[in-house]
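Field reference: sequence -> structure
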Amino acid sequence: LKSKVQLFLFYSIPHLGKCMQKEHLNHCNFADHYFNRIKLKKYHLTKCLQNKPRISELARNIPSRNFLCKNFLSSKQGNEKPLSENMDAFEKVRIKHGGFVYYQEGCCLVRSKDEEADNDNYEVLFNLEELKLEQPFIDCIRVAPDEKYVAAKIRTEDSEASTCIVVKLSDQPVMEASFPNVSSFEWVKDEEDEDVLFYTFQRNLRCHDVYRATFGDNKRNERFYTEKDPSFFVFLYLTKDSRFLTMNIMSKTTSEVWLIDGLSPWDPPVLIQKRIHGVLYYVEHRDDELYILTNVGEPTEFKLMRTAADTPAIMNWDLFFTMKRNTKVVDLDMFKDHCVLFLKHSNLLYVNVIGLADDSVRSLKLPPWACGFIMDTNSDPENCPFQLCSPIRPPKYYTYKFAEGKLFEETGHEDPITKTSRVLRMEAKSKDGKLVPMTVFHKTDSEDLQKKPLLVQVYGAYGMDLKMNFRPERRVLVDDGWILAYCHVRGGGELGLQWHADGRLTKKLNGLADLEACIKTLHDQGFSQPSLTALTAFSAGGVLVGALCNSSPELLRAVTLEAPFLDNYIKRYCPCQNIKPQHYPSIHITAYENDERVPLKGIVSYTEKLKEAIAEHAKDSGEGYQVPNIILDIQPGGNHVIEDSHKKITAQIKFLYEELGLDSTSVFNNLKKYLKF
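Structure field:
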């Protein structure tokens, strides 16, 4: 991206999928005795295109497709702002509803008129300090259809527990109710114009119960559904047009969806398709039709199907849109006449716009620097806005305008990182011949990359993508000469469902082989060397990192882990069970005192066992042996991962610079531009 106002031409790319018309899945003839007909009621779409949750909140690893490539045009944004000096500014929850924007300002839930959203002219709706929580923040906001109430989920950095407050909107806003341990929640309105709040109750990190509540003169709060299978959890999602509230009952491999009528929420819910082991599906709605993302059929990647809303069972699903291998749908957005798919294919990002009237498909290849989407809540039926970002570049706005059939980019301040850094898409060949994608960043003017420090990041679990959102500390490292490498190994979701399946459970060693191949490939191609290489991961990514430290410690000089999984029941690759007397890289572990997902006891046990093995190895290594440092940094609180903790970021960077023998003066000066110390 070279200038503020420039036409960007991107060449045509191969189709990533195919549009279908009336092609039935003849192998899907399951009888469904739970099937009920839905009495359809006319609903005006334009009235309901409000700020809705994204389907990506349900489907973290979905598929994709492509067709025609079009132009990028620059578009001047009215509320353009320079780069923020505080990374927290990128994480604020803001939603638009009617003529207002709802958001957090300081310790308050506030709203302001749309055009005044960036000024100090706002109305305070609720002071979070009334909850008497330590540093509370708003995690999610939902506004009732007629703006009589607003609900907000409040959390703290010290805990995964949350409180949902309901505020009555009036001349003097007042908190009407509060509910503890709420996960997802949505508003609907019944036949008598009464607002009904549906919400899920979380207990022991699982959501099994759904409640519905009303307020005002007709207060009630009742349990609506309980899931009895402990391997499943429940999540609520309101379709883009507000026609249906979907109750999604999901496990890691199977899902079941019920429809709650958005016009008659007191009626019994309707089952779309009872759960079938191994079948996942997610639902949107438009013009009395259901659009279903599902992995049913061959290949077992996601595809888009549709059926009439009054005949929702699987036997009636028509194949509408297919995806090729190694393609993933990151998100889906539904409009009056279009369906927009946000895709990842071969480690690059695309947007596909499907015309629902004629089944036409237009595909846009996005700028090569882009590594991730940030979806905007959107009430404009004529435009589809979104943001693109990378680990070293803050989000940038783009808008697809349906009437013009073109993608416009935000103009104004151009981030200098576009000229001072390079992004490379590379591949490493694993032991079994699989090609493993990598995304690599470094300064354009770096000389002799073999002598530069390298930070490798990996996750490879739960079918989730490696996080590629903007992180100021990563930006600062690149500015200071580091090479960053993101390894998209099997077990993650970057190349679709099969990529995940090929790296989980008994196939977890594939992910380990991929990680080893990535690091060796980087070294072989002149990116750094073992003595200057560090590896980092959080949560479930700790399994692969811990396993690599046991199997190939010579590839690394230092490791940072946060809330890592280090003990599991598969002995072949369990980090804790395979510790042995040998040389290890220095390791810095951040753990949280009351983490319910990764108990502190297991991390302490791993650390002690590792220190014992290192001490035993040091006895036989002579006087000149440099014993690696093993640091366990226990932070207070019960959150699993605190991404924006300045204290944690500072400690990890300090550790890396000391272990690699680097001067940290400039990096900490640069960090002060972003972090508030």
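Note: The first strand starts at residue 8 and ends at 9.
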